Every structure is written in C-alpha cells, then in structure tokens.
Amino acid sequence: MTKRIPHLIDDSHVVSTGRSADVYNPSTGQVIAQVGLADADVLRQAIDAASAAYPAWRNTPPAKRAQIMFRFKQLLETHEAAIARLISEEHGKTLEDAAGELKRGIENVEYACAAPELLKGEYSRNVGPNIDAWSDFQPLGVVAGITPFNFPAMVPLWMYPLAIVCGNCFILKPSERTPSATLYIAELLNEAGLPKGVLNVVQGDKQVVDALIEAPQVKALSFVGSTPIAEYIYSEGTKRGKRVQALGGAKNHAVVLPDADLDNTVNALMGAAYGSCGERCMAISVVVAVGDQVADSLVDKLLPKIRGLNIGAGTSVGLDMGPLVSAAARDKVVGYIASGVEQGARLLLDGRDLKVRGNEAGFFVGGTLFDHVTPGMTIYQEEIFGPVLCIVRVASLEEAMALINAHEYGNGTCIFTRDGEAARLFCDEIEVGMVGVNVPLPVPVSYHSFGGWKRSLFGDLHAYGPDGVRFYTRRKSITQRWVKRKSHEAAQFAFPSNG
Ligand code: NAD
C-alpha cells in the first residue's frame, strides 16, 4: 500500500479519507505516496484549532515566542540531511540545492528570533500638553499561506515563522506535489515547543484554497505560485476584505555589457539558468547580450558547459541538475522548445531527447539554449520554468532596459558589467523588484524583503523581512493624556492642534 500523507491539526496527524493526489519521485517517474486533499470539514478542524489557540498565543510575550524559534532553528539544522532528502525525492532537485533552500529558509527563522525587537512599536512623548502617542503592532488573528512546489522548505519558512512570532495562528496549504518536507518541518516547530493549534497544515488543491478564501475567520492570505493563481487569490481575497500578498511568476533577464568579465558571467549564468532545472522564480531565463560580439562569445563559452551538465536523479550526490517535477511540467517545457523552433529562434542545444541511464522513466529535459530570440516569440513572453536559456541580441544598454521594462513580469533581473555608471542607471530605472549587479540570483537576505513588481506581485507589501512584519500585524495608534491632579482644562471646540 502506498503511504498516505496526512494533515497536521492541533499537533496531530489527521488522515482524510476523501480525495487524494499521487505524489511522484520525478527522478524515477514512480508514484511514491498519496496525499489526502482536505475538504471543508478538514479545513474547519484546522480553523477551529487555530482560533482556539489564538487568545493565549496573542498574549504570549514576544520573547517567549522567539525562544521557540531559537529551538526550531536548531532542530532544522540537526535534521538538514533528512529534510534535503524529502525535498529531493518529491521535487527532483539535487541534495545540495535542497540543503541550500533550507539554509535560506532558516535565515527567516533567525529573523523571527528578533520578535521582541521587531514588535517594539513606535513611541512619541509629549505630542501635546501631557499627551503621549504610540503605535502598537498587533496580530491579525488566524492567517494562512499557500505555497508552490518548487521551494517546499524555503517558501513556507518565508511566511509562518514571522506570522507566528507576531502573535498570529497559521494555516499552511503546501503544494500537493511536494508535501512531505513541508509537513516534516512543521512537525519540528511543534517539537520545538509551539503550543498546539498555532500552526496547522492542510494538504490540498484548489478546493481547500477556495475554502480558505471564503472563510471569514482567515484574516490574511500569503500566496506564492504562478501569476494567474496569484491574481485570482488576490482579487477574490481582497474582495472579501482580507489582506493579501500574492507573489507570482517571472521572466528574469540578465543583461551582459561588453565590459563584463565573461568567464565569471558564464559561470553565474549556468547556475542561475540551469540550477534546480530552471524551476526557480528567480531563475535567469533570458540573456540580453549587448552587441553581437558579446552574444557570440557567450554562445562559445556556454555551449561546452551546457553539454557538460551532470544530470541525474536528484538524490544522487554531486550533480548539477535533476529532473522536472512532473510529466506535465516536462511536456510543457518540451512544447515551449518546439514553439521556439517553429517561431524562428535558433536552437543551439536541444535537451528534449535526454535519457538518464537507470532512470529512463524520470521527467528529464537536458540543458537547452536558444539564440536570436525576439520579443514577439512565445518563449520570450512566457515563463517556461525549465532548463531553457534564451539569448536576445540588442545594440545598447538603453535597448536592453526598454525590453525588460516592457515585459509583463518584473521579479528579478541582473546586469554584468564593470561600469559603475551603467550599473547605477540600471538600478535606478529598471522596473523590476529585485536587482543584481554581477549577482545572478539577487534573492534578498531575510532582513530585507522579497518581491517583484508588475505582474510578479499582487499586493502592497513584499514577503518576509520588515514588510512581512507589517503584513502580519496591524497598527494601532494610541494617544493618551494624563492631566496633573486638580488642574482643570476648558472645553475646546476647535480641532486639537499644537498651533
Ligand atoms: P501554482 O500556481 O500552480 O500553485 C501554487 C499553489 O496554488 C499550490 O499550493 C497549488 O495547490 C495552488 N493552486 C494551484 N491551482 C490553483 C487554483 N486553480 N486555485 C487555487 N489554488 C491553486 O504554482 P506552482 O506550479 O506550484 O509553482 C511554480 C510557480 O510559482 C511559477 O510560476 C513560479 O515562478 C512561481 N513562484 C514564484 C515565486 C515568487 O516568489 N514570486 C517563488 C516560487 C515560485
């Protein structure tokens, strides 16, 4: 019998008997488990558990909440190997890549350990005679997160450690394609001493997401995933008066200027384009080469490296790249490669026929490189989410920037150059939320915040860091007067001011 992956409610496993989905090992193409898909009844149990836990958790001192996060961080580090294996088995990414995403997730736990500092509030003495004013940052109540398949450890850790230290109770809906690592990590937080019901995990698909959107007890939704779903959740959630931050898809361009150090640039591009089989929202999928000479040199240097990619089952050691997450993802990428050829791009390396010995049924596509891609092509416009790098040739930095600014997505971008003036112009005027200068994957550290512009993010606040604290709290402004005993003040009918 295949394993059935449960929900986690009130610190107990709940095995639902209704609908389920197959969970694959993408390296072998085999079903390795089934995940129960929550219905309205399971979600109700989670909401009841979170609502019951909220009053006591809200009143728990931030320093005590933070102490649990210190223990959680230690447990995550102790169990790194087990977590990396769970990620790799269901996602296909290499073990080293899986450990890397966990480390970036742990950064967010470290940030959450600063809860007493983050929640100190703002205070002004004597804003008027005998009057002091301050702002408190109070929790929202029960909040929820919906996460994508591609970072089963890191993206949930962007959300609930911070939401929880801010005093909220949390319901997490992981991707049904990669549920196990997410569940295991949530169990570790309970082991670290989190009171029952403060964090609950409901497995599921659209049905439970819609129920979360509908539930009046859920005050805020954090979403990370593709743009159409992000837009849907943002519009349906805000329509119901919820706070929503919804991070969507991407098409990240790397601009290469003629003065760039091309050997370092090519190494940076290899990891950013083909790492995790291109299944990263910050993956570089377009290289904008300024000048034909740059483009030709990049092609010469990239081709042998892409041919040399060490591709295999993610759980083996020392690989560069594993498979795509599912047969559907592989077919989609293969379809994009065909469309690039049909629309006239020059296919320099074709990963479609890759077979990995011993894992012939795995969902593999090899490293693929297109040159002479133009903005009208589907492979330029849409997010491929696979190991496909497109080279676009332009004549100037201005043309490169105009191209990026015209694209519907604005998640990440980077520029490779030794010219500080060009880099500064790029940082100032590019319409993208996260920018790298000689840094291919400019994923902000946990004490900044993560988010794209344009159709890569719906909402006002970015994820984690200072924006995360604001998202998971609401400001209460308090103005207080204590008049000296026996002093009397006359009634005042004009609007109060210091004038
Ligand atoms: P997805 O949008 O298919 O799924 C994300 C989540 O939404 C999952 O939990 C899924 O169960 C749920 N979902 C799927 N369809 C739904 C529907 N119709 N209604 C309601 N909920 C639904 O995304 P994915 O394939 O898991 O992840 C890949 C996508 O996520 C890519 O587009 C990638 O760029 C994006 N992503 C963005 C970021 C970012 O920070 N901007 C980070 C990681 C991934």
From TrEMBL:
This protein's UniProt keywords: NAD, Oxidoreductase
Protein name: methylmalonate-semialdehyde dehydrogenase (CoA acylating)
Annotated ranges, domain Aldehyde dehydrogenase: 17-478
PROSITE patterns linked to this entry: ALDEHYDE_DEHYDR_CYS
Coiled coil feature spans: none
Gene Ontology molecular function terms on file: methylmalonate-semialdehyde dehydrogenase (acylating, NAD) activity
NCBIfam families (alphabetical): MMSDH (TIGR01722)
Organism: Phytopseudomonas dryadis
Entry EC number(s): 1.2.1.27
Gene: mmsA
Main EC class the enzyme belongs to: oxidoreductase
A single GO BP: L-valine catabolic process
Pfam family, one: Aldedh
